[in-house]
Write a structure and sequence with these properties.
The complex is a heterodimer of chains A (225) and B (216).
Chain A: E1 2-13, E2 16-27, E3 31-35, H1 42-50, E4 57-62, E5 66-69, H2 81-91, H3 97-110, H4 126-138, E6 144-148, H5 156-168, E7 175-179, H6 183-189, E8 192-197, E9 200-205, H7 207-211, H8 216-222
Parallel strand pairs in A: 3-7, 3-8, 5-6, 6-7
Antiparallel strand pairs in A: 1-2, 1-4, 8-9
Helix pairs in contact in A: 2-3, 2-4, 4-5
Chain B: H1 3-40, H2 44-59, H3 62-77, H4 85-111, H5 115-123, H6 128-158, H7 170-181, H8 185-211
Helix pairs in contact in B: 1-2, 1-4, 1-7, 1-8, 2-4, 3-4, 4-6, 5-6, 6-8, 7-8
The chains are: A alpha/beta (225), B mainly alpha (216).
The complex binds adenosine-5'-diphosphate and magnesium ion (MG).
Chain lengths: 225, 216
């Protein structure tokens, strides 16, 4: 079953094409990584998929719910960690409060922040904040999670703790679309990898095939790492 | 007239000053928020008139505005509301004047909020009004509280402009007492009242700022 299908997506900013006829679908439980040079349209693709930007042409269809984890976390600084994770569940999804809090605490335990539920985001490290953002997205019970460079704002040692949490989500069988510059991680965690350049999907396949591709752009891109 | 009598007389008229102060705040803060929405509106038919209103309120003397609000209905339409309208005119003039200042403060606070807060809220399913009232406004209030404090302290002193319409607030009263007694003492006492009032206001707002210090 497909949880996401994007057909013939096109998007320009001020006449400059950023997405050129991008089509892609994600199966339930599948982990898809998107790699590619900066400016190639990866974020725009995610923003169009989630509805934060409007496509000029093409279509996006979802089966079920999705959540998003941003590069800059975008936690709500005036709320405690627990409220960040549970407020939308209670206020938007109208789930019973006690149940939501219980699930929220379980999620915080899962990401290793059970003792921080009453802390405010500013009291946490960047890595901890990003883990809270992941818990917040998970609390929505998503069928699909988008990650836009979840570790790009973090120091190397904090990067690893966030990658460990993302890796541990595999067992939840939630589909994930991960834009990342962590090549080793993408290769190891993904079922499928997409290489984007100039607003187009240039290569697509299993990590083995994509990372072994002879495509010039791909080789040039990988040589930076 | 003894000092004690002067204090007692001024204390009575201080009630009017306090009333002007409180009514102005209660009216102009929500009104200012509404005006800031108009000022930021995507619709030019709303945005331009609201910008003009803010500009005129901030660019002309409060004293002149008081007179226009009080005498305007008579000179423009021949309507006379009688002396009871004095106080109402003071409330209206102060509220629309301060709303313009507060609107600009709200606007700068709202526009300083990072886009990511709106985007995260939207993807979590919050409605526009939920996003504004639960997520954006509380953070805006923290950011703008120092500017609001400044305006409120100015308002304490500006209440004295109600003398323009001969409303018996503390300053009008102090002037009358000083003239009657040919003494400057009532004016000094009034000054002390304003100073203490402002001291209390500043203390209250500093307390509020401290309360909001728990994040960032
Ligand atoms: N809101 C926007 N307005 C104008 N240009 C944009 C906007 N968002 C992205 N772009 C441009 O689109 C191109 C692709 O950006 P982006 O999708 O962020 O790439 P990536 O995430 O792959 O680095 C870039 O050239 C960027 O400057
Ligand atoms: Mg990007």
């Amino acid at each position: 079953m497909k949880v996401l299908e994007i057909r013939n997506a096109e998007k320009s900013f001020d006449g400059t094409p950023v997405l050129r006829d991008v089509s892609l679908s994600v199966e339930a439980g599948e982990i898809l990584s998107i790699i590619g040079p900066s400016g190639s349209g990866k974020s725009t693709l995610l923003r169009c998929a989630t509805g934060l930007e409007k496509l000029d042409k093409g279509s996006v269809s979802f089966q079920g719910r999705f959540g998003m984890v941003f590069q800059q976390f975008n936690l709500f600084p005036h709320w405690t960690v627990l409220r960040n994770v549970t407020d939308a569940v209670i206020r938007v999804q109208k789930r019973p409060r006690e149940e939501a809090l219980q699930e929220g605490r379980a999620l915080l335990a899962r990401i290793g922040l059970a003792d921080k539920e009453q802390a405010y985001p500013c009291q946490l490290s960047g890595g901890q904040q990003q883990r809270v953002a992941i818990a917040r997205a998970l609390a929505q019970n998503p069928d699909l999670l988008f990650f836009d460079e979840p570790t790009s704002a973090l120091d190397p040692e904090l990067t690893q703790e966030v990658l460990r949490v993302i890796r541990s989500l595999k067992e939840l069988r939630i589909a994930m679309v991960i834009v990342t510059h962590e090549m080793a991680f993408a290769r190891e965690v993904s079922d499928r990898v997409i290489f984007m350049a100039d607003g187009r999907i240039q290569e697509e396949g299993t990590p083995e095939t994509v990372f072994a591709s002879e495509n010039q752009r791909m080789r040039a891109f990988l040589s930076q790492f | 007239m003894s000092l004690l009598q002067i204090v007692a007389e001024l204390w009575q008229s201080f009630g009017v000053t306090l009333q002007i102060f409180l009514v102005t705040l209660i009216l102009s803060l929500p009104l200012g928020l509404l005006v800031s929405f108009g000022r930021m509106s995507g619709n030019p038919l709303l945005r331009y008139p609201v910008s003009a209103y803010i500009s005129v309120m901030r660019g002309t003397p409060l004293m002149l505005q008081l007179i226009v609000v009080y005498f305007g209905p008579y000179y423009l339409f021949g309507i006379s509301f009688g002396p009871a309208y004095r106080m109402t005119a003071v409330f209206i003039a102060f509220a629309v004047n301060y709303a313009a200042y507060f609107a600009e403060i709200f606007r700068s606070g709202i526009q300083s909020m990072p886009k990511g807060q709106y985007e995260a809220a939207r993807l979590l399913g919050y409605s526009r009004s939920q996003t504004f009232f639960y997520i954006i406004l509380p953070q805006v209030i923290k950011r703008i509280l120092p500017s609001i404090t400044n305006e409120v302290i100015t308002l304490v002193k500006d209440t004295a402009f109600a003398f323009t319409l001969s409303v018996m607030e503390m300053f009008t009263k102090a002037k009358a007492l000083a003239a009657g007694q040919t003494s400057i003492l009532p004016l000094f006492v009034a000054g002390a009242f304003y100073y203490i009032f402002n001291y209390a206001v500043a203390y209250l707002f500093a307390y509020g700022e401290k309360k909001l210090d728990y994040y960032q």
